[in-house]
Design a protein that fits this description.
Chain B: Keywords: Centromere, Chromosome, Nucleus. The complex is a heterodimer of chains A (131) and B (288). The model of chain A has no long low-confidence stretch (mean pLDDT 88). In chain A, strand 2, helix 2 and strand 3 form a beta-alpha-beta unit. The radius of gyration of chain A is 15 Å and the shape is globular. Chain A has a single domain, classed as P-loop containing nucleotide triphosphate hydrolases (Rossmann fold, 3-Layer(aba) Sandwich). In chain A, strands 1-2-3 form a three-stranded parallel beta sheet. By secondary structure, chain A is α/β, with parallel strands linked by helices. With 288 residues, chain B is an alpha+beta fold. Chain B folds into two domains: 150 residues, no CATH class; 102 residues, no CATH class. The interface between A and B is medium-sized, with 15 and 17 residues.
């Protein structure tokens, strides 16, 4: 399911399936996308931040088109205890591997991988980021 | 050499294309005349090969290399190096004048981060600015690359860095009446490309920056963000357009103009060192 911002319209609440993971997309070329994500974060139930949220930063291939400081995004990830993934969607290879990575995370968040919970996985990811 | 405003006046009000340059190996300041001769011979040889700069024009190119001693920041900085190409049409009498056709200069203003860590025999002049035909830039660039084993790369300026520049320079104190502060945005992903130009009265821009900046002489990313957010919010209130979703491509202030393709024009001699210091920093971060 794709949405341009949160909250999701309430009229369709009853038709919506269970949401297992939320990916907030930030375009590094658009300051507006960061502001939009920051505003939308307030509308997400706190329980999602236990490993069911990640930030996907796109457009990182073009360093010269940067409108957002990467520190600001990393700080956002730290504040909300969620991983930050940097990618370049315009490159087919990166697009495919990013999609696979998100799918693997989604399977964990949906509880489809026995023995691995969303929370344990995200703390594993954060530990390796810190090293 | 003492500070000579005449010597640096020609640097103002010209559109300079920016490059980052890796440290030069084996460069010796005492050999400037030799280098000028060698570069001149190289250009003449390339023209003979048929890589003519301008077709059908018979021009002799004369090369002059000189040092700009006052263009440096700290003791660690090397003095700037100027390369000037002049033309003299063939077959003319001895009272014909040399007409300058191309300028290029290397400089380092507070480039200590690079100079501190450089091994022996290397000269750090990370910022290169050129004005004139691109073909001459390519010739001079390739001679320097061959002779000093260095690497030139175009220096682009990101929207993030452009917003630093506009915040810094809009806040500069100027005695004369200043020109408007202008920001040009390019809107992506449209069938027809659209540019939005946002002009602000210089006094309003300075007043805004003065309320934002907490410590004079110091600028933080947060202050730049607040400054830009105010401008974006003001624009949105009037036109319902989110400029923060567009790409900032060019900024223009009374101090200097800068374009994201890496082209600057410095207008005010008082702020020349400050502008060069910022550009040196950008060049160094591109090299590293």
């Amino acid at each position: 399911h794709l949405a341009t911002s949160l909250p999701l319209p309430s009229e369709r609440d009853h038709l919506r399936p269970r949401i297992d993971m939320v990916v907030f997309m930030i375009d590094i070329k658009s300051k507006y996308s960061l502001k939009n994500v920051e505003a939308s974060l307030a509308y997400l139930d706190a329980r999602f931040f236990l490993g069911k949220v990640c930030f996907l930063v796109t457009g990182v291939g073009r360093v010269n088109a940067c409108s957002i400081e990467t520190n600001a995004i990393c700080k956002l990830g730290e504040t909300y205890c969620s991983p930050v993934i940097f990618c370049e969607l315009e490159l087919e290879g990166v697009r495919a591997s990013t999609a696979q990575r998100l799918l693997r995370m989604l399977r964990i968040c949906a509880g489809l991988i026995p023995g691995v919970s969303a929370l344990s996985f995200v703390s594993l990811m954060r530990k390796s980021d810190g090293d | 050499e003492k500070a000579d405003p005449q010597k640096t006046a020609f640097l103002l009000r010209k559109a300079w294309t920016l490059y980052s340059v890796t440290p030069l190996y084996g460069f010796r300041r005492a050999r400037l005349r030799d280098y000028a001769r060698l570069l001149g011979a190289f250009i003449a040889a390339e023209k003979q090969k048929g890589l003519a700069v301008e077709v059908g024009v018979e021009l002799d190119i004369k090369v002059a290399l000189s040092s700009l001693a006052d263009i440096r920041g700290s003791e660690l900085d090397q003095a700037a190096l100027l390369v000037q190409l002049s033309s003299r049409s063939r077959g003319s009498s001895r009272n014909s004048e040399d007409k300058p056709v191309w300028w290029g200069w290397f400089c380092s203003v507070f480039g200590d981060e690079l100079s501190e860590n450089v091994p022996e025999h290397f000269t750090c002049l990370p910022l290169f600015l050129s004005h004139g035909a691109e073909s001459y830039t390519a010739l001079v660039g390739s001679w320097f690359q061959k002779t000093f084993d260095c690497c030139f790369r175009r220096l682009a300026i990101s929207p993030l860095n452009l917003s630093w520049m506009v915040a810094m320079w809009a806040g500069c104190k100027l005695d004369r009446a200043a020109s408007a502060v202008e920001l040009v945005f390019s809107v992506p992903r449209l069938a027809q490309p659209l540019d939005i130009s946002y002009a602000i009265h210089p006094e309003d821009a300075k007043a805004l920056w003065d309320t934002v900046q907490k410590t004079p002489g110091e600028i933080t990313q947060e202050e730049v963000d607040v400054f830009m957010d105010c401008l974006y919010a003001h624009f949105h209130r009037h036109f319902k357009i989110h400029l923060s979703a567009a790409k900032l491509v060019k900024i223009s202030t009374a101090v200097a103009l800068a374009h994201c393709d890496g082209i600057v024009k410095i207008l005010h001699s008082q702020y020349l060192p400050g502008v060069l210091m910022l550009l040196t920093e950008l060049a160094i971060s591109q090299i590293q």
